Amino acid sequence: MGIDLQRGAVAEVIVDFPPVNALPAAGWHALADAIGAAGADEQTRVVVLAAEGRGFCAGVDIKEMQRTPGHEALLAANRGCAAAFGAVYDCPVPVIAAVQGFCLGGGVGLVGNADLVIAADDATFGLPEVDRGALGAATHLARLVPHQLMRTMVYTCRPVTARELHRFGTVLEVVPAAGLRRAAHRVAEEIAAKDPLVIRRAKESLNGIDPIDVKRSYRFEQGFTFELNLNGAGDRARQRFVEGR
């Protein structure tokens, strides 16, 4: 259980936090460290980011926040998410997200910063942040869906399917769940066969021409989460979630 890094030309970083891959604050930092270590290895040509279980990621561990006095867990989770999302974006080699089941909240932050997305046919993507009294990862959702759909998803917390994202071109392939990891590795091996120095410079150049600074944009969003927490709205929403209301 936790974060597993399997090194190689195609490195694999695997998330495993049963039952729903809701990551505690330490888990986000561990994920950032694993992706950073994979990218720093000169033998790595591509990173596949995958998860065990029925869903890719359910976001942050809200129960951890509610059982921890004060703001320590909230602050740690916010910094951990920023670190993990940043690690995906800054990884010097392409990162392929292999997504099954639900991809929610922080999961969207990871996938939105990935270079390529392969999804299982049961995958759904959503930001339930408004229902949780928080804001964030709209920065990354905007890289997956058109602008007004992004706004609709934020306001309503409605998810979209992998097939919808495939129509937008932001999911490369939709495959049966049993073949998800194999499909991600097939694309990874195609990239890994290229000149590794050229691919690393390609990643750097593509980040350099991005129209939005995703790290600054996400931290701006997080400021409103702090505001909601200070005025009590965030805590009330999280408590409703924990109590199943």
What is the CATH superfamily classification? 2-enoyl-CoA Hydratase, Chain A, domain 1
What is the CATH third-level topology name?
A: 2-enoyl-CoA Hydratase, Chain A, domain 1
Give the overall silhouette: globular
Instruction: Give the topology string: H per helix, E per strand.
Output: EEEHEEHHEEHEEHHEHEHHHH
Number of helices: 11
Biggest sheet statistics: 6 strands, mixed
Any idea how many domains?
Answer: 1
Class, according to the CATH hierarchy?
Answer: Alpha Beta
Secondary-structure-based class equals: alpha/beta
- The CATH architecture would be Alpha-Beta Complex
> What strand order characterises the main sheet?
1-2-4-6-8-11
Low-confidence stretches at least 5 residues in length (pLDDT < 50)?
Answer: none
Percent of residues in helices: 40-55%
What is the tally of beta strands? 11
Strand content: 15-25%
Termini separation: 29 Å
Arithmetic mean pLDDT: 95
Radius of gyration: 17 Å
